[in-house]
Amino acid sequence: MSYESYRLIDTEKILEREAGVFRCNRSDSGLVSTLSESELGFTCQCKAGLMEIKPIKTDSDYREVLKEIETLMMASPDTAEGERLDVLVTLVEAYESKHYPLDLPDPVAAIKFEMERKGLTVKDLEPMIGKSNRVYEILNHKRSLTLKMIWNLHERLGIPAESLIKPSVKMRVSRTRAEN
User: Fold this and answer.
1) Same-domain pairing of 18 and 75
2) pLDDT of residue 128
3) Of 38, 59, 100, 150, whose CB has the highest number of CB atoms within 10 Å?
């Protein structure tokens, strides 16, 4: 494919797409050509026309894409707009995970949050952690969670295991002081 025909791709309409190959119809000449995804480069074709997707590099790009996503939120899944929405959301997720990573909560904070959210008491945690004095030790950062406790809290309360296995901030501080 020559450079000139690549530049004219915006005048082409997709007739079909199969296994990464696009069959295109040039609107100005009626000529049918076949293009691979690699020949298209970073540009994607949709049935409705050219869909140009650029990487999100700056905060300004990020805000611009968020505005566009907002306009596409009601798009049907199997339409050009729906496909564009899927691609843009994926780009935003990648940008956010790189630039705005979410740190997992402290295990005790996660337990207390679930207790408050579900209206649970210390007594309600006993089947998952042990007797009430053990529950208080956990909630006051005096004792670490065991693997069995983590499993029970994850299974019964739905707290992400990743949050529960993270060492508690207060426990790390007290261990550091004890070592010094």
Assistant:
1) no
2) 97
3) 150
